[in-house]
Write a structure and sequence with these properties.
Alpha-Beta Plaits, alpha+beta, globular, 212 residues
Length: 212
């Protein structure tokens, strides 16, 4: 028996909890969470540099040039490395970048002072580099990630922008082994989702072998 200790910011990444506004869900509620739970993701070993001195820059305008981003982030310190992620086929910006400073305290300063800065008419997101700092990290393209837009229907909690809300009632984990077994069963089974007739909520069901 163990007790769940609530914290607003996740110390490790759990797709099931990241999909819950207070981090207490035990059943996935959207397709993305199921995909993230089934994913076997490993951080890119080719990425170099100090993760503590690196910041993630998201929600960039696709038209924003490298020089514009560097100019803004150089306000917080001397930049060591910069990478604007581009599509390998088209070469177009994918809307996010990584900035590494010489000093990790400059990275902290950038997260604090440059988050929500507007560049080329787009409000950007500045956060820590989660891939190498958050154990168990699953990126957005595999159903994980943090934050997100309401319009996407796949919000993720436990990060700076969308921290976990405190549960209304204390959440006691009944049995850790039972919880792990439940998660594994979702990974092994082929889940199907249908739209509930009376609400917008997705509910899981097993595909029947029989027809009416």
């Amino acid at each position: 028996m163990s007790t769940y200790k609530w914290e607003p910011i996740a110390r490790s990444y759990d797709p099931l909890k990241a999909g819950s506004i207070d981090g207490t869900d035990t059943i996935p509620h959207d397709h993305g969470i199921v995909r993230a739970m089934q994913a076997e993701y490993k951080p890119n070993r080719l990425v170099v540099g100090d993760p503590k001195a690196t910041v993630f820059v998201g929600r960039l305008n696709p038209c924003t040039e490298d020089s514009s981003i560097k100019k803004v982030f150089s306000r917080c310190g001397k930049i060591k490395n910069f990478r604007l992620v581009r599509d390998i086929v088209t070469g177009f910006s994918r809307g996010y970048a990584f900035v590494e400073y010489y000093d990790k305290y400059d990275a902290v300063k950038a997260q604090r002072e440059l988050d929500k800065t507007v560049i080329d008419d787009k409000e950007i997101l500045v956060d820590a580099e989660c891939e190498r700092l958050l154990p168990g990290w699953i990126p957005r393209r595999l159903g994980g990630g943090l934050s997100g837009k309401k319009e996407s229907g796949q919000l993720r909690f436990g990060g700076k922008e969308r921290p976990f809300k405190k549960p209304i009632l204390p959440f006691n984990m009944r049995d850790r082994k039972e919880e792990i077994d439940n998660r594994n069963s979702y990974k092994e089974k082929n889940l199907y989702y249908s739209r509930d007739r009376y609400s917008d909520r997705h509910v899981p069901y097993k595909k029947s072998r029989h027809h009416d």
